[in-house]
Amino acid sequence: MSSLNIAEEMNIAVPDRAETTAHPTRPFLWSIRRELWENRSILVAPSVIASIAILAILQTAIRFSGQFLSQVGPDNSALSSVAVLPLIPVPFVLGVAMVGVAILYSLEALLSERQDRTILFWKSLPISDTTTVLAKMAVPILVLPVVTFVLAVASEVAVFIIGIIALLAHHASVSVALSGIPVLRLLGLMVYAVVVVTLWYAPIYAWCLLVSAWARRAALLWAIVPFFVLVFFEKIAFQTHYVRDFIHDRFWGVFPVAFTGEYTVHSHHHALVAYSTNDSLGALWTPGHFLATPAMWFGLLFAALGLVLIIRLRRSSGPI
Fold first, then answer.
1. Burial class of residue 23, CB neighbours in 10 A (0-12, 13-18, 19+)
2. Alpha carbons 143 and 192: distance in angstroms, whole number
3. pLDDT range class, residue 182, cuts 50, 70, 90
4. What confidence tens digit (pLDDT) does each residue in 37-81 have?
5. Cα separation of 269 and 255, whole Å?
6. In whole angstroms, how large is the CA radius of gyration of the chain?
7. pTM over 0.90
8. For the chain, which residues make up each domain, given as ranges?
């Protein structure tokens, strides 16, 4: 007789069976948490860089704010057009840091677990290779952009406070300066920049993950050496530079595509000019041109195909 039948005969209340099926997203979320636990640099490095940038702006404000404000004029009319300038560098620096941290993380994400043999433990858990790979890809395309945006907003608040203190210290008009800061447009510009940079660099992250899943050591060399060889071979054999232009546009082409609307595939004279007025900040956005760029869609297609191959490699991989 089963224990359930015995309990029923003894009139013992039996609680409902506990739900044993986990939510489909639960293993994925825990896999992302695992990446954050094992790679603290994902959070530490951007925070350190943001702190350094804020300290640099603070030092600049201490040394040069008096000289600058003395040239503005007695009516402080120029404050309305230049007050936004100190708010531009920190998000840009954090964006560069985001890409750098994402590339370094992707190069080590699948290689390190094979080198330290922890892959044996993780494969013993009821977590599929697809979930593991998607969680690792989510770090550069989801986690780092969110972390970067939060740090950018916090840094902008700190810079804003530094600016107000500098204005008060030199008896400048705070109200005039504040009227020249388009807060909503700056926030929108930061969100837009994070999204387009993440989409544009997605194939680079996928390539780095692919190398990390395949290489046995020196993932960085395996990721960049083939392109140097192709550039050298093309130059010697054909006297052309298509590969070099492709690499250049993949790393730097996002700026003219997403922000100026003037993009030619093999041009080396791109320029991104940051304006400080409300109208020019709005003019920087060219989402239609970005979405109509074939290079962006081909890059996302490569990233998707790369993920399929990465999952297959991880499924058949073992400790080194």
1. exposed
2. 16
3. confident
4. 988 889 999 999 999 999 998 888 887 776 666 666 555 556 666
5. 12
6. 26
7. no
8. 24-316
